TrEMBL record:
Pfam families for this protein: Anoct_dimer, Anoctamin
Broad class of the protein's primary localization: membrane
InterPro entries: Anoct_dimer, Anoctamin, Anoctamin_TM
Biological classification of the source: Eukaryota, Metazoa, Spiralia, Lophotrochozoa, Mollusca
Stretches assigned to the Anoctamin transmembrane domain: 272-677
The name this protein goes by in its record: Anoctamin
Native organism: Dreissena polymorpha (Zebra mussel)
Boundaries of every Anoctamin dimerisation domain copy: 42-269
Amino acid sequence: MQIYEDYLSLARNDALSSTTSEGGEQIETQSHTRLSEDIDCYFQDGKRKIDFMLVYEEDKNQPKSLETQKVSTDHKRYTLLESLRKAGLEMEEERVVTERKAITYVKLYAPWDVCCFYAEDLCMRAPLQAHPIPSSDCSDTILKALNIPNMMHVEVPNKPLDVYTCPFKKSKLNRFLGSNNHETFFSSTQRSRIVWEILATAAYGNRKRAEIGIERLIEEGVYSAAFPLHGGPYELPKYCKLDPQALNPRQVLYHYWARWCTWYRYQPLDHIREYFGEKIGIYFAWLGFYTAWLLPASLVGIFVFLYGVFTIYENIPANEVCLEDKRDLYLLKFNFCNAAVTFLEYWKRKNASLAHLWDVSDYAEIEERPRPEYAAKAPTYEENPITRVKEPYFPPRKRLPRILSGIAVIIIMMTLVMIFIVAVIVYRVLVSKPLFQHASTRPRAQLIASFSSAIVNLLCIMALGRLYEKLALKMTQWEMHRTQTEFEDQLTFKVFLFQFVNFYSSIIYIAFFKGKLVGYPGHYTTFFGIRSEECNNGGCLVELAQQLSVIMIGKQMINNAQEIIVPKVKAFFHRMKIKVDKSRVQSRWEEDYQLIENEGLFAEYLEMVLQFGFITIFVAAFPLAPLFALLNNWVEIRLDSQKFVCETRRPVADRAQNIGVWFSIMDGLAQIAVISN
């Protein structure tokens, strides 16, 4: 290991040295890029490129090697490595001793025959023909036609090619582009997916007890991490002139996408897809498309808000003010209901265009293999009616009781939310009641009670949401869904259904129920001896706007603070745990291990779809909601891009045809918005 470190250090020093040859600056940049992307990502022989990394930590006072683990307590670890060897993977070990830990990095490499077998088995697609990708931004096309400079457009180097593909077959290898080079024929994302499939299905014990897969071993602490390597550093070289064509893919994404100064530019979606896979690429395409549609909605909301503010100070009779307000609200409701439906229809067009361009139009669940946990726990095997291949099978009659149990848990959690809302109402009444004795203090009492209850409500909503997400994950795992898509759809449905009640119930109460069951003098309606709440003289719209603004904006601020602070705190404690020696040159796998684990897109989609509900269902009460959503999303895109490029380990690239069940949820919210408004 020390010899390799010395070699890496000398190589980097050579890259930093100047040259007097013509075009020397470009040579320096290319040399640096080659070292940062190649040497750090290869086995010590410099020929086999690392496809995946396994990491485990041990007490440095008890050193072990792969050969001695067979008789040690780490038998599961040794058994898994033996399973990987039998599957055809090649591996190499690097051991680093820090002040507190002995960290072992196991490099994994899939040879050509292994890649071919699994590429065919996983229905991967291979290129037949390639040509440049045309511009797909409508605004860019329109501005070019009008000869107007487009400040949002920028030429991103190393743009991927558009390729025609078909399912890979080794028997037809000579028909595919680049088939003569076995090392570059499969992309880094494809190779990482192949190795991940092997890792996810490799056994380390009894298969009948579901002792398979690297994920379970990571949960048990046998391994610390498993991840594909980033394609080099993201920092740009500071010691020589920038040559865009010499940047590695991670540097391109950072320079042209993840920096804050690029907030107004188009996202390089093809580069994102090439580096992170179609699933993440489609998420950022949807987020950018949604943010663009918020711009005209924000302008309408600002106009209505300012018009309402100025109308208050004009000398207009009360009946005319009410009439004008009703017209404004009707206009606002009509515009936003139509905008929500139009947005969804145009996104379907954009999604279909991307799916065709990225060759995932025919990607369906039938192409997906059964989840490893499903395959391990399924009691029988049945023939797939499409592929005619026997696959693990879990009978629906056994799954039904589990699904019903999950529904019961959802109902119980919703009941808890409703009980909490009643408690908030009682709190609001009790806080404002002592001040009701004097008419002059009544408005102030209502304001204090409403604002403080909104803050308490927000904090409890965030806490209950975190608790239920963990519970829903366990319930969905227990229900035994066949594919990853089915699993994610069921998890999404459970979590969103609960979060819908969790976030919107208090707002729905104020909008539609508060003040409707008050009664009349002498016969006031009471609940458990407490008089029912009533609205002030101007109605509940002001209180509704206050409640909505506190919950929506407060949620956005908390989520953004978490996305900024939490990754840095996690990374700090992780580095403290392993006690990194900063005086020594760090290899690529060491630097990537110091990053935090990527947690996927579920939380990102959930945050945005809940926001979509706020700005469609309740926009009449808070016309500035689209503006705050727009400002939040500009920040969100930068935070998410920096998180994926700079702060987290590289995720395994997944294929996807669309945004999944989230579209159906937004379609349902748009229909609810029509009724609500």
